[in-house]
Write a structure and sequence with these properties.
By secondary structure, the chain is α+β, with helices and mostly antiparallel strands. The chain has five domains: 4-236, no CATH class; 250-471, no CATH class; 482-726, no CATH class; 818-957, Rossmann fold (3-Layer(aba) Sandwich), CATH 3.40.50; 974-1203, Adenine-n6-DNA-methyltransferase Taqi, Chain A, domain 2 (Adenine-n6-DNA-methyltransferase TaqI, Chain A, domain 2, Alpha-Beta Complex). The strands form ten sheets. Strands 18-15-12-19-20-22-21-23-24 form a nine-stranded mixed β-sheet. A seven-stranded mixed β-sheet has the order 1-7-6-5-4-3-2, with helices on both faces. Helix 4 (112-126) links the parallel strand 4 and strand 5 (135-139). The radius of gyration is 35 Å and the shape is globular.
């Protein structure tokens, strides 16, 4: 057997294959590669070192975020990070173009070049302990041989005989210590064996990618994309570095707001959209134009601005959606004649009104002749977006046709350019400006956007963000980044699909790969497709619909991967296309790797486009469901899903005449307005939902989705509403059961016993009658309670998740980014808080809505279902959520916690984590982190190991760290009781506390606290004592700010005054992001301090020794890894209980004195005006080494501490 040879394309996985560079990216890459090959061509006789430097320069250009250099004897390496401190990711063995004897060739593989790179790889693995090598490359600049690290692992590193000989060679225990001996006698024979066994080697030659007829270096256009893909970090370093396709295009957004008459301003932590300030207002911008009209209609002034913004948002939603539609029509028909958003066609607001409601809202056959002649190619969309809103038809509102036209000033940073390529200025007609502005950007809805540069692309995802921001103008909004939704959706869908397929086919698969292996014929493929189509997925706080779009794309891509894609006639299309999700967008390619483009009148193209449309349609109608409390969010979500369908829309032969673009289904019934957390009927309530009624309910919902007649749609909706009300009346609630029981008792009490005590019987009857009356009131109060008016009745709203008998079954997956609002805020009424307390018992005092949504999800999923949420990472560490954490660990089999060290939300000061859980899976808990845009799995563990901990600390679970923490704990005793007493500082202010009492009223207290009545910059009387804040406390010294605090019973919690006297240690509760994360020092002064500082008193050993240990690097390592203080980047803080558990190593007097002496030197140095930092660093290192010795660390363990970085 010989090697398994791969081509350039075959060497790259499907995700790399799906990377589609934009034109400017390809041009830049082509420039770099051409320059490199030109230099190589002009210097082909130069030395290996010279040519290697040319390659180094080229790699630095295409991989700007990675350090590239030599490493020891290795010719060249791409490092995994930006600095030389990071590990090697790709190893190169470089040969000059003239060194033909040592260079590897396809005919002669086992050359010195191959032998050298094997030696370098083994050296990295054995002696540098590098586990992060991805590839090994042998090249002379033109000929490239690429071997994956897994091949080196398989054939060389796991070859015990080879490893033994290489190890002996490193110790001079073989016949020769010359490297040639190592290559020829030790490594070469093993390479021969690897070749014989079929080691996989990819090869390509850059000279074959050049245009042969060209005199100068010119790369073939057909090869450029594949070469671009090869030289990406995603390929060379196997990176899953997410480039978010959903970043807000700030230039587009700002100018769009200007045209609307709005601007974005910051209020607190939120960015709010509001009317432009008077000096910036333009008479004919949307908002100002509307306000003028409202003024004429005598609409109250206090309502005018709000109404104007609402109308502007509605109209802009329509126009932006139509811009995407226009882009599709032009692309489908390859003709600019299909443009319709132009000033030539729409020169007045009356014409725009006509477009909305006389064209898009009417079928072609129902339009009047004038508009059909003008806009005959613009399709009927069957979308509620083109139905007049209540506001447009109300007395206080207006239609867009009522607006006059006029000129406005061009935005100072406009995208409009003149013939001289400079920004336009001056005045311009508003409608012409709007359409010219939109034309300045590329609204392509496929990934093949080459018309304009990357910065000019406004794709569906970017537009989704725009929709969310302008529709959430009052609230401020935080958009979940694309790489997060993509990761969560992909992982959750793959798990859910495996479970659903197992259920349908009675399989026992654990992974998608196992499912794929068992799909061995079309019959099985269709069953798997049916299983996937049976999925029911919900986002209960849907926002703009970003998660649902990601889920939709992932399902299509997974069907393609499993080869179970069929058209609506049941024909297999997996042999025609491949679908991937790249940067959170669906990419469809033909089998040659070219992007699929729909071509009208091309039979195969139409077959594929129609199949993708119908796949998407089925998933949207039957698999995806959502709720949001905000009607605007629901509208955006529907809009985003319609856009996804619009991307795959196709022309069909209309019986009435020419081909027509297919209409959009009524998916709005799956996306509902309501408060997910509120419902008057629990999910286990019983309804008298007879089989016939339930079948009618399902049938009506199906009819609603399929009809494209608006009158029919309205009639069906009325029937559905009436049917749901009839179910409502039969709900078997506890209140109704009690009432029925009492009514039975009343009937019995009404039967008079001729021989009984008539007075007693009458008394009993009246008593039961009164109870019945009260029970009726209780039931009526529950059913008519205004609290539930906007609630979501999960028990009946989605018939798709009910069983045949009408019982609640649930969703296969609940996914999303729930809101983060503290229930203690004034947002919630007392009654609502009481409801939360009753309905969500796992959420303790002062619940946050994300915890409520988590508990809601527990109820919404079916037996065997799963949950995937992104929530604040305080969930992992705060005691308030301990009950929820333990419930997850005890109730779910496969659990994942991924903490983000990256700032996920640019505009929100909150750190987050991803939590995922599934039942009926192999039992394990996976822990990971998001760092530098990458998701890294840290460890797999058992639930039991986490149930014993107060917090979930992800980093401490990894094997090497875990064993080191255990050793530290074994060779030490905790501070509390053994070395001293740790106590909180005082608390100056709290509502209703102190004597005399501080203000109880919230506003009064806020004003009282802001005035700082107890603080002063001078000692006013004997009650004033020197005060320390957290910032005054430094490592080994104090920098008192000069503040005084009036100490006494008027403070909220003054503490015992002895706490602030005598010999003691002080340690700051807020750690510093540094390898020396703690700030501890010693004092005898009578300073008082608040709870940002902890005091250690009753010292039982030398205080200077204790300070040295607390300020050492090993204590920082221990606390950060054990308690993950920096897991929450935004507001990290140590708790008193954790500080009490700090380990202090066992030691004798001499060892303590040695450390204390060094501490004295540091403390003396820190008091000097000019500190000798080199001396301090040296003393720190000495202390670190001594403390590590006391903990009994080995040299290898010490190196872990030395290398530790934050």
């Amino acid at each position: 057997m010989a090697i398994k040879g791969l081509s350039l394309k075959e060497s790259m996985n499907k995700f790399v294959q799906a990377i589609m560079p934009l034109d400017d990216e390809k041009l830049r890459f082509e420039k770099y590669l051409t320059e490199y090959l030109n230099h190589l061509k002009n210097n082909k006789t130069e030395s290996e070192e010279y040519q290697k430097n040319l390659l180094k320069h080229f790699l630095e250009q295409v991989l700007p975020y990675n350090f590239i250099n030599t490493s020891s004897r290795i010719d060249l390496a791409i490092y995994n990070g930006k600095t030389s401190d990071s590990t090697l990711g790709v190893i190169f063995e470089c040969k000059s173009l003239t060194n033909k004897s040592e260079m590897m060739t396809k005919e002669r593989l086992n050359t010195k070049a191959f032998q050298e790179i094997v030696a370098y790889y083994l050296s990295e693995r054995l002696f540098s302990k590098n586990l992060e090598i991805k590839k090994c490359i042998i090249t002379n600049g033109l000929s490239w041989f690429v071997i994956e690290a897994k091949e080196f692992e398989k054939y060389f590193f796991k070859n015990k005989c080879l490893i033994e000989l290489v190890t002996k060679f490193s110790k001079n225990q073989l016949s020769s210590n010359r490297t040639d001996f190592l290559y020829s006698e030790v490594i070469a024979p093993e390479i021969d064996k690897a070749i014989e066994k079929g080691i996989v080697v990819a090869h390509f030659d850059l000279s074959q990618a050049l245009v042969k007829s060209s005199k100068s270096i010119e790369i073939k256009k057909s090869n450029l994309t594949q070469l671009y893909r090869f030289f990406t970090a995603e390929n060379l370093l196997n990176k899953e570095i997410f480039t978010d396709s959903n970043k807000l295009n700030k230039n587009f957004y700002d100018e769009l707001l200007y045209l609307m008459g709005l601007e974005e301003t910051k209020q607190g932590t939120s960015k709010i959209i509001s009317r432009l300030k008077p000096a910036k207002r333009q008479r004919y911008s949307f908002v100002e134009n509307i306000i003028d009209k409202l003024e004429m209609k005598d609409v109250p002034r206090e309502k005018q601005e709000e109404i104007a913004i609402q109308l502007t948002v509605v109209w802009m939603n329509r126009i932006l959606f139509l811009k995407l539609l226009e882009s599709q029509l032009i692309q489908f028909n390859q003709s600019e004649d299909f443009r319709f958003l132009t000033f030539e066609k729409l020169d007045s607001f009356e014409e725009i009104y006509s477009l909305f409601f006389a064209v898009l809202a009417k079928k072609e056959e129902d339009r009047n002749q004038r508009v059909q002649e003008k806009f005959g190619y613009v399709p009927y969309l069957n979308s509620s977006l083109f139905e007049e809103t209540e506001l447009e038809t109300s007395r206080d509102g207006i239609g867009i046709d009522r607006l006059p036209e006029g000129n406005i000033d061009i935005f100072s940073k406009t995208a409009l350019k003149g013939a001289d390529k400079k920004r336009k200025s001056g005045k311009i007609n508003f409608i012409a400006y709007l359409f010219d502005f939109l034309d300045s950007y590329d609204f392509s809805t496929t990934i093949s956007h080459h018309k304009k540069s990357k910065n000019d692309l406004i794709n569906a995802s970017v537009l989704g963000l725009i929709f969310e921001k302008i529709n959430g103008y009052k609230d401020g909004s935080f958009f979940t980044p694309g790489h997060i939704t993509m990761y969560m959706s992909r992982k959750a869908i793959r798990t859910a699909v495996v479970d659903k397929v197992n259920e349908f086919l009675n399989w026992q698969c654990e992974t998608i790969e196992e499912v794929k292996f068992l799909i061995q014929n079309i019959k099985i493929a269709k069953k798997v497709n049916s299983a996937i189509n049976d999925l029911k997925i919900c986002d209960p706080a849907v926002g703009s619909g970003h998660f649902l779009v990601s889920i939709l794309n992932e399902i299509i891509a997974l069907k393609s991967e499993l080869n179970v894609l069929f058209d609506d006639e049941g024909n297999h299309i997996g042999n025609l296309i491949q679908c991937y999700v790249i940067n959170d967008e669906l990419v469809i390619q033909d089998m040659a790797g070219n992007n699929f483009l729909y071509q009208v009148n091309n039979r195969q193209s139409e077959k594929i486009q129609k199949a993708i449309f119908n796949q998407k349609r089925y998933i949207l109608e039957n698999c995806l469901f959502a709720v949001d409390i905000n009607p605007s969010s629901v509208n955006i979500c529907r809009l985003r899903l319609w856009i996804e369908l619009l991307k795959s829309s196709y022309y069909y032969q209309n019986k009435m005449g020419p081909k027509t673009l297919t209409t959009l289904p009524n998916i709005d019934i799956n996306i509902k307005v309501g408060d997910s957390l509120l419902h008057k009927f629990d999910l286990d309530y019983e309804f008298d939902m007879r089989r016939t009624d339930f079948k009618e309910y399902l049938s009506l919902v199906r009819e609603y989705k399929e009809t494209n007649n608006k009158r029919t749609k309205a009639k069906i909706w009325d029937k559905i509403s009436n049917l749901k009300r009839s179910f409502d009346d039969t709900a078997s609630s506890p209140e109704l059961k009690r009432l029925k029981k009492l009514e039975v008792e009343l009937g019995k009490a009404g039967i008079i016993d001729l021989f009984g005590d008539e007075t007693a019987e009458t008394r009993r009857y009246e008593q039961v009658k009164k109870q019945v009356s009260e029970a009726k009131k209780v039931l009526e109060a529950r059913l008519k309670n205004p609290l539930y008016a906007g609630g979501m009745e999960w028990r009946m709203e989605f018939p798709e998740i009910l069983g045949e008998d009408g019982r609640f079954v649930g969703f296969d997956l609940v996914i999303g980014n729930p809101p983060y609002i503290f229930a203690q805020n004034n947002t919630f009424s007392v009654e609502m808080k009481s409801y939360y307390s009753r309905s969500y018992p796992l959420n303790n005092y002062q619940a946050n809505t994300f915890g409520l949504f988590l508990e809601l999800a527990f109820s919404l999923i079916r037996d065997g279902g799963g949950i995937s949420y992104i929530i604040p990472n305080s969930f992992l560490t705060i005691n308030q959520y301990k009950t929820l954490r333990h419930h997850i660990l005890k109730s779910y089999d496969e659990v994942t916690f991924i903490n983000s060290k990256d700032k996920i939300f640019d505009e929100a000061s909150i750190d987050v984590c991803i939590v995922e859980m599934f039942t009926k899976r192999p039992s394990k808990v996976t822990l990971g982190v998001i760092s530098g845009g990458e998701i890294k799995i840290v460890a797999d563990t058992k639930a039991e190991s986490l149930l014993n901990q107060d917090v979930i600390t992800i980093s401490s679970i990894s094997g090497r760290v875990s064993s080191l923490l255990l050793k530290i704990e074994k060779n030490s005793k905790v501070i509390e009781k053994n070395y001293g007493t740790v106590k909180d500082g005082l608390k100056a202010y709290e509502r209703g506390k102190g004597s005399p009492k501080q203000p109880e009223d919230k506003d009064e207290f806020k004003e009282f606290k802001a005035s700082k009545p107890f603080f002063s910059n001078q000692k006013k009387d004997d009650s004033y004592r020197m005060f320390l804040s957290g910032s005054d406390l430094q490592r080994y010294h104090l920098k008192w700010s000069g503040k005084f605090l009036s100490y006494g019973n008027h403070l909220a919690a003054p503490r015992d005054s002895k706490l602030f006297e005598g010999e003691r240690l002080l340690i700051a509760r807020i750690p510093v992001k540094s390898i020396y994360t703690f700030r501890a020092t010693y004092t005898k002064e009578n300073f008082v301090h608040e709870q940002s500082i902890e005091s250690i008193t009753n010292l039982k050993v030398s205080p200077l020794y204790l300070i040295g240990v607390l300020n050492s690097k090993i204590l920082s390592f221990y606390a950060i890894e054990k308690f993950d203080f920096l897991q929450r980047n935004t507001f990290p803080q140590m708790r008193l209980t954790q500080i009490k558990q700090f380990p202090i190593p066992n030691s004798n007097d001499d060892q303590q004195n040695e450390i204390a002496d060094l501490v004295v030197q540091i403390m003396e140095e820190m008091t000097k005006e000019k500190v000798n930092q080199d001396l301090v660093d040296s003393l720190n290192t000495e202390i670190d080494e001594l403390v590590m010795d006391l903990f009994g660390l080995t040299e290898e363990e010490k190196q872990i501490i030395r290398d530790f970085e934050v």
